[in-house]
Design goal:
The chain has helices at 2-24, 28-40, 47-53, 57-60, 69-72, 80-96, 98-101, 103-132, 136-139, 147-160, 179-192, 199-218, 244-260, 289-309, 343-347; strands at 165-169, 172-175, 274-276, 279-281, 329-332, 335-338, 350-354, 360-364. It is of the alpha+beta class and 376 residues long. It is a multi-pass membrane protein.
Length: 376
C-alpha cells in the first residue's frame, strides 16, 4: 500500500516537472491560455457558470444573443484530462508554431479558430433543431473546450511538415497529413461508444474546416501575400488517395460557388519572367519564402540522413585484398588500361590506381583474376 502511494506521488511529481519544463520558455500568451484554462476547470462544478461561459445554441442567437460566449467557451473544460491535453497542445504550439509565426499570429489563429468553431457549431445544432424540432438541441447542449483549436493545430502541423512520418503501421506509414482526418474519425468512434460528448466531434470537424480556410486563403505573410496556395494543401489532400478525385470535384464546386459570392478569392498564379545571367527566374506570388525555406531545409535534412546511411568505401580498399600474380593495370576514372611493364612489375604484378587528387597507388592482383571496370 505504501509503495502504491509512493508511485502515485512520484508520478504526480513527474507530471508537474514535465509541464513546468514545457511552459518554462513559452511566451506570455501561451502561459495565459494555460492558466485561464486551468482555473476555469473549477467553474465546471457550478451549473450557472457552465451555462454562462459555454455556447448554448438557444441563447447564442437572437433574441438572447449571448455573443460573449464565443470568446469564453474555449477556456471551460468539464474533465481534468481534457485540461491536461489542452495545456500540452498549447504548450507544444508555443514550442513549434510560435517561433515560425510569431506570438501575434499565433493568438490571431487561436481567436479565429475558436470564434469560427463557436459560430459554426451553434449553426449546426440550430440546423439539427430545424430538422428534428428537439428543443434539447438548443438549450441542453453546451459547447465548450479547446477541441476545435486542437484540431486546428493538426491542420497547421500538416501545412508545415506534411510528409513527416509519425509511425509505421502494417497498412502503411502515418504522416502529419493523416492527422486531421484521423482525429475526426477517432472522435466519432469515441462518441459512439460513449467516451466523448456529442459536441466534441462537431467541434473537431469545425476546427479542421475553419483552420484550413484561414490558412489556405486568409493568413497574412511577411511578404504581403495571403494564404497558402500549395498543391499539397488542397482540401482533397486530407483524404486517402482513393477518395481524393471525388472529394476534389465536390470541393472545387463549393469553391467556385464561394468565389462567386466573393467569400474566397480565385487562385491566380502569376509568373514573373526576368532575364538573369544564369537563366530565368520564376516568381509565384502566394507562397511565403519562409515556408519555402522551411521545406527546403526539411528536404536537405532528409537527403543528408539518406546519404549518411550509405557506406563510403575508398577505392583502394575494394582492391586491397587482391594478391600478387597478374599483369599490372592503370585505373583512370572509369577507363581500365594496361600499365607499362617493368622488370619489377614482371616479378611482382601490381595495379596502379590513380586517385582524383592525382597520386597513384600500387596494389597486387592475383594471377587468376582479371580486373574489370565493375571492380572499381
Amino acid at each position: 500500500m505504501a509503495s502504491i502511494k509512493i508511485q502515485d506521488k512520484n508520478f504526480s511529481y513527474y507530471i508537474q516537472q514535465q509541464l513546468a519544463a514545457l511552459l518554462r520558455n513559452t511566451s506570455t500568451s501561451v502561459k495565459f491560455i494555460c492558466v485561464v484554462t486551468f482555473f476555469c476547470y473549477f467553474l465546471s462544478y457550478w451549473d450557472g457558470a457552465v451555462r454562462s461561459i459555454s455556447v448554448t445554441p438557444g441563447f447564442f442567437f437572437p433574441p438572447s444573443f449571448w455573443i460573449w460566449t464565443a470568446f469564453t467557451f474555449c477556456f471551460l473544460e468539464i474533465h481534468f484530462w481534457e485540461v491536461c491535453v489542452d495545456v500540452i497542445i498549447v504548450g507544444l504550439c508555443g514550442k513549434l508554431i510560435e517561433p515560425l509565426w510569431g506570438a501575434m499570429e499565433m493568438m490571431t489563429f487561436f481567436a479565429i479558430v475558436n470564434f469560427g468553431v463557436a459560430i459554426i457549431s451553434a449553426l449546426f445544432y440550430l440546423l439539427l433543431y430545424m430538422c428534428t424540432f428537439n428543443e434539447e438541441l438548443l438549450f441542453q447542449v453546451h459547447i465548450h473546450g479547446l477541441a476545435g483549436y486542437v484540431a486546428g493545430v493538426t491542420v497547421a502541423v500538416k501545412q508545415m511538415m506534411p510528409d513527416h512520418v509519425i509511425m509505421k503501421t502494417p497498412i502503411g506509414k502515418m504522416t502529419n497529413r493523416n492527422i486531421p482526418l484521423t482525429a475526426i474519425t477517432l472522435s466519432v468512434v469515441l462518441w459512439l461508444i460513449g467516451l466523448l460528448e456529442g459536441t466534441n466531434p462537431t467541434m473537431i470537424t469545425c476546427g479542421v474546416l475553419v483552420s484550413w480556410i484561414y490558412l489556405r486563403f486568409y493568413q497574412y505573410h511577411t511578404n504581403g501575400s495571403r494564404g497558402d496556395m500549395a498543391d499539397n494543401f488542397v482540401f482533397a489532400s486530407f483524404f486517402p488517395n482513393v477518395l481524393q478525385p471525388a472529394v476534389a470535384v465536390i470541393s472545387n464546386t463549393i469553391y467556385e460557388f464561394m468565389v462567386k459570392l466573393k467569400l474566397c478569392r480565385r487562385t491566380v498564379r502569376k509568373f514573373d519572367m526576368a532575364a538573369a545571367p544564369t537563366g530565368v527566374t520564376v516568381t509565384i506570388p502566394g507562397t511565403d519564402p519562409i515556408d519555402m525555406e522551411r521545406r527546403r531545409q526539411i528536404a536537405l535534412k532528409a537527403l543528408s540522413e539518406r546519404l549518411s546511411k550509405v557506406e563510403h568505401t575508398p577505392l583502394v580498399s575494394k582492391t586491397s585484398n587482391l594478391n600478387k600474380g597478374s599483369p599490372s593495370h592503370i585505373v583512370q576514372g572509369n577507363i581500365l588500361t594496361p600499365a607499362k611493364k617493368s622488370k619489377r612489375s614482371e616479378q611482382t604484378p601490381t595495379t596502379s590506381v590513380t586517385t582524383p587528387s592525382g597520386t597513384s597507388t600500387l596494389i597486387n592482383i592475383p594471377p587468376n583474376s582479371e580486373p574489370s571496370v565493375s571492380d572499381v
